[in-house]
Amino acid sequence: MGPLDRVEDEYVDVSSRRATVRELLELAAGALVFVLVASALAYYLLGDTVALVVAGGLVLIFGVMLISQAYWAITGRSDYE
User: Fold this and answer.
1) Type and span of the H or E element at 77
2) In whole angstroms, what is the distance from residue 9 CA to residue 25 CA?
3) 29-67 pLDDT tens trace
4) CA Rg, the chain, in Å?
5) Contacts of residue 21, Cβ cutoff 8 Å, sequence gap at least 6
6) Average pLDDT, the chain
7) How many other CB atoms are found less than 10 A from the CB of residue 2?
8) Residue 24 · residue 74 · CB < 8 Å
9) Residue 18 CA from chain centroid, whole number
């Protein structure tokens, strides 16, 4: 079994079960920290306007991700099996 097969098996294993509230909160906390660090770095290097654009884009991306993960946590993931 090669490395790609292992990654695929792990992905299917994780994706085939419902996410817990703790996992969703960890995901949200990690996303928040990432947005704060990325926007602070953009502010330091490129200015306030770019930092706002970076933060807004990341909030949008992570928001869609969190909504999708919450949806799969509620409905289950039987289609992965």
Assistant:
1) none
2) 24
3) 999 999 999 999 999 999 999 999 999 999 999 999 889
4) 16
5) 73
6) 82
7) 7
8) no
9) 15
Tokens of 69: 């993960």
Taking the C-alpha atoms of residue 76 and residue 12, their distance in angstroms, rounded to an integer, is: 13
Q: What's the farthest any 2 CA atoms get from each other in the chain?
A: 49
Amino acid at 62: F
- Report the Cα–Cα distance between both ends of the chain, in Å, rounded: 20
- Which structure tokens are listed for 60? 């949008």
Query: In the numeric block, which tokens belong to residue 61?
Result: 């991306």
Main-chain dihedrals φ then ψ at residue 17, nearest 5 degrees: -115, 160
Tokens, residue 72 = 């799969």
Q: Tokens 């099996």, residue?
A: 81
Rounded CA gap, 52 and 58, in Å? 10
8 backbone dihedrals φ, ψ, rounded to 5°: -65, -45
Token pair 């085939």: residue: 16
